[in-house]
Design goal:
Helix 1 (about 5-10) packs across helix 7, helix 2 (about 25-35) packs across helix 7 (about 125-150) and helix 5 (about 95-100) packs antiparallel against helix 6 (about 110-125). This protein has a 4-stranded antiparallel β-sheet, with helices on both faces. The longest helix has 25 residues, at about 125-150. It has 9 helices and 4 strands; from the N terminus they run ααβααβαααβαβα. It is globular. It has about 210 residues and is of the alpha+beta class.
C-alpha cells in the first residue's frame, strides 16, 4: 500500500534488517521505484548512477561471501540493489543533452554552448576526482530510492560494509568503469523498526 503523506515517508523510513523471505517485489514496481530514484539531481545532469538488482538465488549466493556482516538482509530481502557509479558516465552526455533538446527541456544553442565544455572537463578529471563526483551523485539517488521504496510500503537497509573490491569481478562488471557505492536491501519488513536518536537541529546548524 503506497504511503501518500510525505512526513510519513520521512519519519517512517527506518533501517530494517529482516524481511519477509517469501515476498518478491514485482518487477514492474521495482522498475518504477528505480525510475523515480533517478529523478535525483546530479552534477551537470550526467546521472552516473547504475543499479545492479540482485534478486535470484544464484545472484544472492554470489553476493553472500562479500557481505559477511549483513547476511540476514541478503537471505530475506526481495533484492539487494548494488548502487554503482559509472566512471565513464560522460559517454552518455550526447544522449542526455540531445534528448533534453528533443523534449523541449533545453534550447539547442544552450546545449551546443554547454556540452563541449562539460565533456572536456569531465574527460580531464583524474580517477579520484571522478570518484568523488559519482559517489556523491549516486548517494543522492540511493537516498531517493529508499524514500520512494518507503512510499510504496517497502523497507530498506543501506549497507556500506561489504567487499567493494570484489563486486565487479563477482558479477562480471568492468571494474575500471563501475565502482560500488552502497548496497540497499529492499523488501517487505518482518521486524518492528526501533527508533533512533537524532541530534537537535540547534546542535548542527549555524546561521550567519
Amino acid at each position: 500500500m503506497k504511503v501518500k503523506n510525505f512526513d510519513d515517508v520521512i519519519f517512517g523510513r527506518k533501517s530494517i534488517k529482516i524481511f519477509d523471505e517469501n515476498f518478491k517485489i514485482p518487477k514492474n514496481e521495482m522498475m518504477e521505484i528505480i525510475e523515480k530514484a533517478t529523478k535525483a539531481p546530479s552534477s551537470v545532469n550526467m546521472q552516473p548512477w547504475r543499479f545492479l538488482v540482485v534478486e535470484s538465488k544464484e545472484g544472492k549466493d554470489k553476493l553472500q561471501p562479500l557481505i559477511r556482516f549483513n547476511t540476514r538482509q541478503n537471505e530475506t530481502s526481495s533484492a539487494m540493489i548494488v548502487v554503482l557509479g559509472d566512471m565513464y558516465n560522460y559517454e552518455y552526455g550526447e544522449k542526455i543533452y540531445n534528448s533534453a533538446v528533443e523534449f523541449g527541456y533545453m534550447p539547442l544553442d544552450i546545449k551546443n554552448n554547454m556540452l563541449p565544455s562539460i565533456l572536456e572537463m569531465y574527460k580531464s578529471l583524474d580517477r579520484n576526482q571522478m570518484k568523488d563526483i559519482v559517489n556523491i551523485d549516486s548517494s543522492l539517488a540511493a537516498m531517493q530510492l529508499m524514500l520512494v521504496a518507503k512510499s510504496y510500503g517497502y523497507e530498506t537497509n543501506p549497507i556500506g560494509g561489504f567487499e567493494k573490491d570484489k563486486i565487479a569481478e563477482t558479477f562480471d562488471l568492468d571494474k575500471e568503469r563501475y565502482i560500488p557505492v552502497m548496497i540497499i536491501a529492499i523488501g517487505k519488513g518482518k521486524q518492528v523498526a526501533h527508533e533512533s536518536y537524532r541530534l537537535p537541529v540547534g546542535d548542527i546548524i549555524e546561521f550567519k
